[in-house]
Amino acid sequence: MKCAIEAVGKLPHDAGQMTIPAPYKNLQKHVFLFGMFAGLPGYASAQEIACRAPEPVCAARQAVFVISSFDPVASAVRIAPNLLVTNRHVIADKTTVSIIMADGEKIDGKVIPTNYGGDLVLIEAKNLPVGPVLPTAEADQKSSLFTIGADFSRRKIRVYPPGKLLLKPSKTARFPRLYHTALSQPGNSGGALVDEKGRLIGIITSGGEGRFEAFPITAIKKLKTMSGEQYAAASQKIGAALRNCVEFQEKLPRGKRLSAQMAKELDGICAVSGNRQLMDSAAVLLGQSRHLDLSQQLLKKALMRDPQAINTRLSLITALTFAGKFEDALPHIKILLPIIPEDAMLQRFAVQAGKFSGDMALARAGLDLVKKHNPAQAEAATRFLEAPLRPRPAPKRKPN
């Protein structure tokens, strides 16, 4: 991703570091959490980096390529002899791509216009050398999953440490993704998510905090039906909206609170992009500047694209908690607790929101999870839960 988005991805957080009871006393000490971007991508036939994964996974590297376009480094996966797929956010409104081979040779690729609203796009590469096309499969809860993409610093394809499936793609979401724990890093967007048999499960797109995302292979079929020269105008519009959101975020002053006007512009520009991870990153910036209502609204719009988005929902919980809307946060906390029960920040929110809203069952469930997964913090959480509940200040009324 571009530098501004990388900066968002590196926002400090205190998840897993509940060392003192202060977070329970002062919500301002929470750091606004956002699912960090997995960023960019890689290329195949790169035997320079040792592969310690199962042999079929190592062999699957031959189907992943480094590309350069709107993002200077990104990945693409071969899905037909002369056809690649990658993330739309690494292309934006560009119409051409450089495909970088292991020996440094560059091959021209042509972006196929699309009206598809998800974060995928096809690339035609007529001069691509002969190589493998990976078999495909649906994600399985029992399978080990591996990210294959570029090591961003070394520009070499590598296989990253394995993980497991967290959530299968929603059957009702507009743009469903699958959620997993296979490590993804900057350099991986557009890369391949494969199982231990080397079968293509999905296309890496974003994630962070140990929770990563990929588009399922079923999305590629839909993408194909919505791609072709007849979509050139619509494709350009989608790409320009992505570019506008990224570039607007890049030019925002760092370390300073956004004015009301800038916050409104950021919200509008990035909502138009329709790109969930860009909407998430914009919501983070809004939250950091205490434009919490705009942040919440944008995160809710992002969730409409895929209600299973774990990091988006966790960011929404954070924004609601900052705003003192504990009752509104409750249903979101209850959705995530069975999925990521080990998350220290979510545990903290469960204890806080449960106590402040009067849902003591939730508060006690959060405390039980603290004791199980973060026992060093159990005493602080217990003291907070057992302390007398102070009256909550009345919300400030806006002047007429």
Describe the structure.
This protein is an alpha+beta fold and 400 residues long. It has 2 domains: 3-35 and 233-386, Alpha Horseshoe (Serine Threonine Protein Phosphatase 5, Tetratricopeptide repeat); 55-222, Thrombin, subunit H (Beta Barrel). The chain contains 13 helices and 13 strands. The chain has helices at 3-9, 22-25, 55-59, 217-225, 232-251, 260-273, 276-288, 292-305, 310-322, 326-336, 344-357, 360-373, 378-386, and strands at 64-68, 74-80, 83-86, 96-100, 106-112, 121-124, 145-151, 156-159, 165-167, 178-180, 192-195, 200-208, 211-216. It has a 7-stranded antiparallel β-sheet with strand order 8-7-11-12-13-10-9. Strands 1-2-3-6-5-4 form a 6-stranded antiparallel β-barrel. Strand 7 and strand 8 form a beta hairpin. Helix 6 runs antiparallel to helix 7 and helix 12 runs antiparallel to helix 13. The protein is globular. The relative contact order is 0.15.
Please give the structural blueprint.
Layout: H1 3-9, H2 22-25, H3 55-59, E1 64-68, E2 74-80, E3 83-86, E4 96-100, E5 106-112, E6 121-124, E7 145-151, E8 156-159, E9 165-167, E10 178-180, E11 192-195, E12 200-208, E13 211-216, H4 217-225, H5 232-251, H6 260-273, H7 276-288, H8 292-305, H9 310-322, H10 326-336, H11 344-357, H12 360-373, H13 378-386
Antiparallel strand pairs: 1-2, 1-4, 2-3, 3-6, 4-5, 5-6, 7-8, 7-11, 9-10, 10-13, 11-12, 12-13
Helix pairs in contact: 5-6, 6-7, 6-8, 7-8, 8-9, 9-10, 10-11, 11-12, 12-13
